[in-house]
From TrEMBL:
It is found in: Membrane. Residues 292-346 form a coiled coil. InterPro entries: Dynamin_N (IPR045063), Mitofusin_fam (IPR027094), P-loop_NTPase (IPR027417). CDD domains: DLP_2. This is Dynamin family protein. One of its GO terms (molecular function) is GTP binding. Signal peptide: none annotated. It comes from Brevibacillus agri. Its main location: membrane. One of its GO terms (cellular component) is membrane. Gene3D superfamilies: P-loop containing nucleotide triphosphate hydrolases (3.40.50.300). The keyword Chloroplast does not apply. Transmembrane segments: none annotated. One of its GO terms (biological process) is mitochondrial fusion.
Length: 546
């Protein structure tokens, strides 16, 4: 049953390793070579379900001596091997010491007799990629390793880079500190970075034999250490106080520390399973940051262009503000283009409505029209004596009566409203012109005898004929008002077109600046979207692989 469980776990590790390789392949072509390389390293480690316990800390903290003591054999020199990839891996297995070079070569040494030669060979950091020592009979097996990293206080920047670049392969971190330098700020910063990355971290305060009890009792010293890390919101998975110089020191927790390492090794698969997932997540984010870094110069160029664009009421860096201002400016431009056509349509509609609703004929109008039409028939005659003169006078009287009727109705029901409507057209568009108003009010549609006579048609003077005649005269009067109104409308439209052209010219320059701002923000948003899409795509591969 146990073998079956192990087989399932090994299959899971193989699947995860394949997923990390897929992630590395997906990252290719985005200008980031470092992260895919780390993922390939992680895949190799995952496929073996290999546990890596990394020892970090200052040069003076005694890391190498501690590792040699834990192993029971002096495999490491007192100082780390000075290579640019200066992380030494020690694992169980067949006895060997190997240097892996940048060009793919592997140089093998005897760890019992040639470690000094190994150290001399590795001085050339430009050619050495990594160093690995395997040795049987220690607390380690072939699937468990200790990593000895360079001191984080090294003056060689390459050493710090080597330490940080190896952390993705570390499942557990042992952070060692000299008794006298526990509260150095560098310790807090580095430890917090490890915890933020989800790494199990155990602190080892070494060389406690330097403690002088009469100055401060040891329990108070331990409390001060714990409080210092808690102040930085750092909660390590454990703290051990050790002395290798005085194994019998009453506060020495070396045995407990070694026992913890054995327990960690015993729980290797569970630790590795959690660790590699956390490492892959971190490497995804590391790759996204690398993509962001590759966009930095382009982003800076775009932001510099934004800073060079100025509008009094718009912050060029405010993408939402720019978008809102652009939408408003484009709406205004569209409004200016459509304004004259819309104004013309509305004015013509208002004029049409006024004319359609103006009533010019009443019963009295029809009666006057009937009398008028009768006087215009052939054979119309009044009286016997002086008939010619009386007939003409009667015709004139009836004409004047009909003219008075139409003029009264036009004055009350049409002319006043027409002039009021035409007068308001310029005001509606904030244009003031007294001369225009004077011409509107001076408008006069002449209703004359000739006008009345022009609309007489042949036919019997029936009631229907009279009503049709009145309608024809009323429509003719309205037609004259329509013609006059359209002339005024055309004048207003011309004024609006001129005004719109002036406003459009002013808005066009503003619109150009806003469109350039918006384009720059779109390019910036495209960079951000590309970065986020990269993250989502890689996270999706990771989810599918689990």
């Amino acid at each position: 049953m146990l073998d079956s469980q192990v087989l399932v776990r090994e299959t899971d590790f193989a699947k995860l390793a394949h997923t990390w390789e897929e992630l590395a392949q997906a990252m290719a072509g985005q200008g980031d070579q470092a992260t895919p390389a780390k993922l390939k390293q992680l895949a190799k480690k995952t496929r073996k379900a290999e546990l890596n316990i990394a020892f970090c800390g200052h040069f003076s903290a005694g890391k190498s001596t501690m590792i040699n003591t834990l192993l029971g054999v002096s495999l490491l020199p007192s100082n780390p091997i000075p290579t640019s990839a200066n992380v030494v891996k020690i694992r169980g297995g067949e006895k060997a010491a190997r240097v892996y070079t940048m060009n793919g070569d592997v140089v093998t040494f005897d760890p019992d007799t040639e470690m000094e030669k190994l150290k001399q060979f590795a001085v050339d950091g430009d050619t050495v990629e990594s160093v690995e020592v395997s040795y049987p009979g220690t607390l380690l097996d072939e699937h468990s390793s200790l990593l000895d990293t360079p001191g984080i206080d090294s003056t060689d920047a390459a050493h710090k880079i080597a330490t940080e670049s190896a952390l993705h392969l570390a499942d557990v971190v042992i952070y060692m500190m000299d008794y006298n330098h526990v509260q150095a700020e560098e310790n807090f910063n580095f430890t917090k970075t490890l915890k933020d990355r989800g790494k199990p971290v155990y602190l080892v305060v070494n060389m406690i034999d330097k403690h002088i009890d009469f100055e401060l009792d040891f329990e108070s010293y331990k409390e001060s250490v714990e409080e210092a890390f808690a102040t930085w919101n750092i909660h390590p998975d454990g703290i051990f106080y050790t002395s290798l110089a005085e194994p019998d020191h009453p506060e020495n927790q070396y045995a407990e520390f070694r026992q913890k390492l054995l327990a960690l090794i015993a729980g290797r698969e569970e630790l590795v399973g959690k660790s590699v997932r956390s490492a892959a997540e971190h490497l995804i984010e590391e790759h996204v940051q690398a993509v962001k870094a590759s966009h930095a110069s382009k982003r800076q160029e775009l932001e510099s262009k934004l800073d060079s664009l100025e509008l009094a009421d718009v912050d060029s860096r405010d993408a939402q503000g720019v978008s809102a201002a652009l939408a408003q400016a484009e709406a205004l431009m569209a409004s200016l283009k459509n304004r004259t056509a819309e104004a013309r349509a509305q004015m013509e509609k208002d004029l049409g409505s006024l004319l359609d609703n103006a009533r010019l004929t009443y019963y009295s109008t029809n009666e006057a029209a009937q009398s008028y039409l009768e006087s215009r028939k052939p054979g119309f005659k009044v009286g016997f004596l002086f008939a010619g003169k009386k007939t003409e006078e009667e015709r004139q009287r009836r004409e004047e009566a009909l003219l008075a009727e139409f003029r009264e109705k036009v004055a009350g029901n049409l002319d006043f409203h027409f002039k009021e409507l035409m007068s308001k057209q310029l005001q509606a568009h904030d244009i003031r012109d007294e001369e225009y108003h004077a011409r509107v009010h001076a408008t006069e549609i002449a209703i004359t005898g000739e006008f009345l006579a022009k609309h007489i048609k042949d036919g019997a003077a029936s009631r229907e004929y009279v009503m049709n005649y009145c309608t024809d005269v009323a429509n003719a009067i309205k037609l004259e008002y329509r013609r006059a109104g359209l002339l005024f409308i055309e004048e207003v439209v011309g004024r609006l077109e001129s005004q719109s052209e002036q406003e459009s010219a002013a808005q066009l320059e503003r619109l150009g600046v806003l469109r350039e701002m918006a384009s720059l923000h779109e390019q910036l948003a495209s960079l951000t979207a590309s970065e986020e899409n990269t993250r989502e795509r890689l996270q999706a591969i990771m989810r599918e692989g689990e």
